Amino acid sequence: MRATGALVLLFCILKASGERPKITDRHKNLLVKISDIPIGSCGNDSYFGLGIMDGGLEECDRWKLEKTDPEYEEYKCKVLRVHASVKNGKCTCDEKFEGPICNEYHGCPAGETLEFRWILGEYTKVCTQMCQHNGTIAVGKTEIECICPVPWHGRRCERLACWTKTTSSQPRRYRNNGDHCSCGDNYSGENCDIVKSCMNNGQLENGKCNCVDEWEGDVCDKRVSNGNAT
After folding, report:
1. Long-range contacts of range 147-153, CB-CB < 8 Å, 24 or more positions apart?
2. Who has the most CB within 10 Å: 53, 69, 105, 230?
3. What is the pLDDT of residues 109-137, one digit of tens each?
4. Is 14 helix (H, G, I), strand (E, B) or coil?
5. Geometric angle at alpha carbon 179, from 173 and 184, rounded to 5°
6. Which residues form a coiled coil (predicted)?
7. 3-class SS shares of the chain: helix, strand, coil, % to 5
8. Are 191 and 19 in contact (CB under 8 A)?
């Protein structure tokens, strides 16, 4: 695999910032950008064992097999393609869809896909980018999905997820507010980093919460685990 050092650096940067962009699939496997996968090469420079061969995304070890593997063709349609089905024993893009992962619709602007969206009381065909909110097309272990910038989540970065703006130790720091993020009830400030009140009878002193027995956390929102209560 290439870019191992870059991945380590990325995780260090994200850990330091506290933000949690979506960079893994639901099984916690790292998502691989389609744009990073080499075209026309399934040799030693393959990226995470993937290559774009003969115009399609492939798992190199299985692509190299001399005989067509029906199981791999089914797998490829399910995991390595967006709009595809097995025809005559081969995974093939559905009608009018094209590209290495069968996500580009012939008739839409270059690189865009076709979706049905509920608009004014009816479903309407719309040409759009597969990944919303500046997400990046990637492949995981179970399907094609998107790497999402904070504060977006979901397969196509379609869902607002303000909890991604901070660490897991501060789940109440931000909250969803329509199409944007706002400070949680116990926080204020431009970056929602000022504690203004405490929960569960905690007392605010000099910007910090003094929690009563059995409670802990920035705003006394976490129950102390058994054996750790003071």
Report:
1. 147/21, 147/22, 147/23, 147/31, 147/33, 148/21, 148/22, 149/21, 150/19, 150/20, 150/21, 151/181, 152/22, 153/22
2. 105
3. 999 999 988 888 888 999 999 999 999 99
4. helix
5. 15
6. none
7. 15, 35, 50
8. no
φ, ψ of residue 113 to 5 degrees: the values are -115, 175
Tokens 């685990």 correspond to what residue?
225
CA 56 to chain centre: 22
Output the pTM of the full model: 0.84
Count the Cβ atoms, other than its own, within 10 Å of residue 191.
Answer: 12
What residue has token string 């272990």? 141
Q: Where are the beta strands (DSSP E) in 39-154?
A: 50-53, 56-59, 84-87, 90-93, 97-98, 104-105, 113-119, 122-128, 136-139, 144-147, 152-153
* DSSP run (H or E) holding 210: strand 208-210
Rounded to 5 degrees, φ, ψ at 187 are -125, 160
Cis peptide before 70 (omega within 30 of 0): no
3-state secondary structure of 209: strand
pLDDT, tens only, 35-44: 999 999 887 7
Task: Report d(CA 23, CA 209) in Å as an integer.
Answer: 33
Contact (CB, 8 A) for 171 and 192: no
What are the tokens at 184?
């949680």
Quote the distance between the C-alpha of residue 227 and its chain's center. Answer: 37
